[in-house]
């Protein structure tokens, strides 16, 4: 009897703890967040660093394809939603994971109510991830790399739209991705949303996953086209796009870096109709930052912060900012093999300042310094021996 009472009491404590974890708090906005490299990260769940803490967040509204076949039921459900073979789901999941990492480069903002999102033992929370006014859930759906599925928000988040308005926006983006055959929709001509799923459902009910694999569809020719990266394409390559001549090509080049395909309509002369004619032919993937530049190291701060790094200096200029005692500040512009790699504030010891400015007056010389976070900025410090 005593054992039963203790078990009952223990059970009630567990239920109470679970209920406490499910408690939804007021919205909290976490600014200056950074992605932490982790095996937990995929297309819609991430380990994120904010101040002195790390949390796992899962995005509201959108569900990216699984990156592996471990979650069999989820993968199968996603294959039915997109009407693609099971193995195509995990391929798309890997692509979504890469897109999400690219979206979350640098710093971004997290809006959360600390609502429990765990699907296993690891504690996680639902959140809206925002960067430069764009939302990751919206971005993934627009690229054809997530379905509208999972936990919606309750009301609007700080400075965000209402839940109803956001759902409408996502549906429009999904329909557009379907029409343009973006992402996984390039393989989904028979999807439930586009034309029906009867044949695929019948096959899966009859023979299980083997039928999905045996009945694998051929990739449409439109999906096979090697897309042009509008952030790196030459003028001649841009002119191969329907409706783009020399003038519009030059405007695209001047507008770089272009964050999303939809941002092209902000360029004078490119209408929605013009964009629809070549949307399926382009991508906006940023090129990898050139080596030995500020951008290269900032892209992986977890690895290089508080380490000595080598940059190739293109030019330096004076900078009127408060410097640590015994140092003077310069603005150091970096480049490698003709590719610009961004600028950074560098602190040079007073006794080396004059010789430093003379030595680096000529571009192409290497500089070794400590990559260091000062307040909210990342700087380079020339260390005395």
Write the layout of secondary structure elements.
Layout: H1 2-21, E1 28-35, E2 45-50, E3 53-59, E4 62-63, H2 72-82, H3 86-103, E5 108-116, E6 125-131, E7 134-135, H4 136-142, E8 147-148, H5 163-180, H6 198-207, H7 209-214, H8 221-224, E9 228-229, H9 235-238, H10 246-255, H11 272-276, E10 282-283, H12 294-298, H13 301-304, E11 308-318, E12 327-336, E13 339-349, H14 353-359, E14 365-374, E15 377-381
Parallel strand pairs: 3-6, 9-10, 13-15
Antiparallel strand pairs: 1-2, 1-5, 2-3, 4-8, 5-6, 6-7, 11-12, 11-14, 12-13, 14-15
Helix pairs in contact: 2-3, 4-5
Task: Give the strand content.
Answer: 15-25%
Q: Secondary-structure element order, as H and E?
A: HEEEEHHEEEHEHHHHEHHHEHHEEEHEE
Query: What is the β-strand count?
Result: 15
Q: Can you tell me the residue ranges where pLDDT is under 50 for at least 5 consecutive residues? A: 1-21, 190-225
Number of helices: 14
Strand arrangement, largest sheet?
A: 1-2-3-6-5
Class from secondary-structure proportions: alpha+beta
Radius of gyration (Å) = 25 Å
Q: Could you give a short account of the major beta sheet? A: 5 strands, mixed, barrel
Mean of residue pLDDT values: 80
Helix fraction, binned, reads 25-40%
The span between the termini is 73 Å
How would the global form be characterised? globular
What would your notes on this structure say?
- With 385 residues, the chain is an alpha+beta fold.
- Helices cover 34% and strands 24% of the residues.
- It has helices spanning 2-21, 72-82, 86-103, 136-142, 163-180, 198-207, 209-214, 221-224, 235-238, 246-255, 272-276, 294-298, 301-304, 353-359; strands spanning 28-35, 45-50, 53-59, 62-63, 108-116, 125-131, 134-135, 147-148, 228-229, 282-283, 308-318, 327-336, 339-349, 365-374, 377-381.
- The strands form four sheets. It has a five-stranded mixed β-barrel. Strands 11-12-13-15-14 form a five-stranded mixed beta barrel.
- Strand 11 (308-318) and strand 12 (327-336) form a beta hairpin.
- Helix 2 crosses helix 3 and helix 4 (136-142) runs parallel beside helix 5 (163-180).
- The radius of gyration is 25 Å and the shape is globular.
- It starts with a helix and ends with a strand.
- Mean pLDDT is 80; it is low at 1-21 and 190-225.
């Amino acid at each position: 009897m005593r054992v039963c009472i203790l078990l009952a009491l223990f059970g009630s404590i567990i239920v109470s703890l679970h209920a406490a974890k499910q408690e939804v708090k007021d919205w909290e906005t976490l600014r200056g967040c950074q992605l932490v490299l982790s095996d937990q990260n995929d297309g819609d769940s991430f380990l994120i660093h904010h101040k002195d803490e790390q949390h796992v967040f899962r995005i509201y509204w959108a569900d990216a394809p699984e990156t592996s076949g471990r979650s069999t039921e989820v993968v199968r459900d996603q294959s039915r939603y997109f009407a693609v073979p099971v193995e195509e789901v995990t391929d798309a999941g890997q692509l979504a994971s890469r897109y999400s990492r690219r979206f979350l480069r640098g710093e971004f903002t997290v809006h959360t109510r600390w609502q429990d999102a765990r699907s296993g033992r690891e504690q996680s929370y639902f959140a809206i991830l925002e960067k430069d006014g764009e939302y990751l859930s919206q971005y993934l759906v627009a690229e054809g790399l997530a379905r509208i599925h999972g936990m919606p928000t309750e009301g609007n988040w700080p400075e965000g739209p209402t839940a109803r308005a956001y759902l409408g926006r996502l549906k429009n983006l999904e329909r557009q991705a379907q029409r343009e055959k973006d992402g996984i929709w390039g393989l989904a001509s028979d999807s439930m949303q586009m034309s029906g799923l009867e044949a695929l459902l019948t096959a899966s009910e009859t023979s299980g996953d083997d039928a999905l694999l045996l009945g694998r569809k051929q990739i449409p020719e439109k999906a096979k086209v090697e897309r042009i990266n509008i952030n790196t394409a030459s003028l001649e390559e841009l002119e191969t796009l329907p409706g783009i001549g020399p003038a519009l090509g030059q405007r695209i080049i001047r507008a770089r870096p272009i964050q999303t395909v939809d941002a092209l309509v902000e360029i004078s002369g490119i209408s929605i109709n013009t964009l629809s004619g070549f949307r399926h032919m382009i991508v906006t993937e940023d090129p990898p930052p050139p080596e030995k530049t500020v951008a290269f190291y900032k892209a992986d701060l977890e690895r290089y912060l508080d380490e000595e790094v080598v940059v190739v200096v293109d030019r330096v200029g004076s900078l009127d900012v408060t410097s640590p005692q015994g140092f003077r500040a310069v603005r150091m512009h970096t480049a490698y093999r003709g590719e610009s790699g961004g600028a950074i504030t560098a602190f040079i010891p007073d006794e080396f300042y004059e010789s430093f400015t003379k030595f680096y007056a000529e571009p192409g010389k290497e500089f070794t310094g400590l990559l260091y976070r000062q307040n909210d900025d990342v700087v380079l410090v020339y260390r005395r021996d």
